[in-house]
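Supplementary notes for students who missed Thursday's class. We covered one full example, reproduced here. Read the sequence, then the structure, then the short commentary at the end.
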Amino acid sequence: MTTTEMLVPIADEGWFAHSDQIPEGSLSLGDVVLLRWPAEALRRAELVRIGLPRLLLIDDDGYPPATVDCLEDWIRCPAPGIEVALRCSAISARAECHAALPILDADDVLHYGEMWVALTPLEGRLAAALLERPGRVVRRDHLYESGWPGALAAESGLDVHIMRLRRRVAPVGLTIHTVRRRGYVLDVEGRHRAHPVVG
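Structure (token representation):
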């Protein structure tokens, strides 16, 4: 099979084309997004930001990016379809072990997979403090300082606002646990198999 015969993915022959011949954003295998590298570098950056698994398709004369992300791998094209499928399977297995973390943007919108929730500025400050230590106790005094910087807040005020934040983030798959007399823990319930939402 010559290079010119591999202009698009050829399922019948089990080969994938050179990456520059594959239309942008057109391929995925299971929950793994196939990206042309470096042509889709911006899309890759967005997928990295929201924690979705990716396989980079690199032409035989190109260079892969340096990465240590367990949700990413690369393969030179053209490549046998079975090798692409096996790499995607391995990425999926690694993704199952590593839940993507939620992201709080500058507008106090909390993103988790394809889901998001808008927070008030106070909820955003509290969520940011919890996101600094996902899965670990964030002490009450740190939450006070984060929520009300430089001000004194009533102890019950923190509890009320955490209760509201807890209700707000539950629909996106996040849970806030109380650790009595110590603080709170942000828990990620499970990995969302989601497609990116850009915006």
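Commentary. The helical segments are 41-50, 81-97, 121-131, 140-147, 155-169. The CA atoms of residues 97 and 173 lie 17 Å apart. If anything here is unclear, bring it to office hours.
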